[in-house]
Amino acid sequence: MGPILQEYRHDVFALYEAFRLDMTALDASGAMKEHARHCESLRAGFAATGAGETDDDGNPVMPPSPAAKLKARLAQSIGAASKRALRRYVCDALIVAKKQDLDVTPSIAQHVCHKIVGRGVKREFLNDTFGTKGRTAADKSTLTEAELREYVQALQAKLDALKAEMKEIRVEARMA
After folding, report:
1. Which of 65, 98, 157, 174 could be bridged to 104 by S-S, CB 3.0 to 4.6 A?
2. The whole model's pTM is what?
3. How far apart are CA 30 and CA 15, in angstroms?
4. What pLDDT digit, counting tens, does each position of 71-85 carry?
């Protein structure tokens, strides 16, 4: 397991551990019972007056439970950790490609990150890592569209394997 997956594993296990602690504290606090009472009073008020926000089936919309909020926060945090790992993998691969004389500019690196991960990377990092002193916008990369497409396809295949390993880590953390 490489450093990217080790860091991802550490992050995901830490997130699940914090989630379990938060759920234990939530159970002890009685907030779930209070939420249930609040929802019951909303349902009773809706039944009596018919007033209030409804879903597509005409049922009253209830506020999310504290447990649902914790689950959503966990999912959000795991998603962020996943995106960080993918961006790091792509950037590391681009750094290796640049060292192997592939003409990777900050713009190309940004394009590849957007294409593969769906998100960009800080421009400052890209300029520091892939920028060339004295190179202007007029000095376009020698990388052709076909070469870039081929590189992205090869990188995508490696990322698919990484995503599968990341999924295994998430399942393992959930079951721990």
Report:
1. 98
2. 0.83
3. 23
4. 999 999 999 999 999
The end-to-end CA distance of the chain, in Å, is 19
Residues 6+ apart with CB under 8 A from 32: 26, 65, 66, 67
Q: Answer yes or no: are the C-beta atoms of 55 and 61 closer than 8 Å.
A: yes
Helix spans in the chain (H): 3-29, 31-49, 66-99, 106-117, 123-130, 145-175
Structure tokens at 128: 């520091």
Ordered by start, the domain boundaries in the chain are 3-175
At 66, give phi and psi (nearest 5°): -60, -35
Q: How many CA atoms lie within 13 A of 63 on its CB side?
A: 12
User: Does residue 54 have a pLDDT over 80?
Assistant: yes
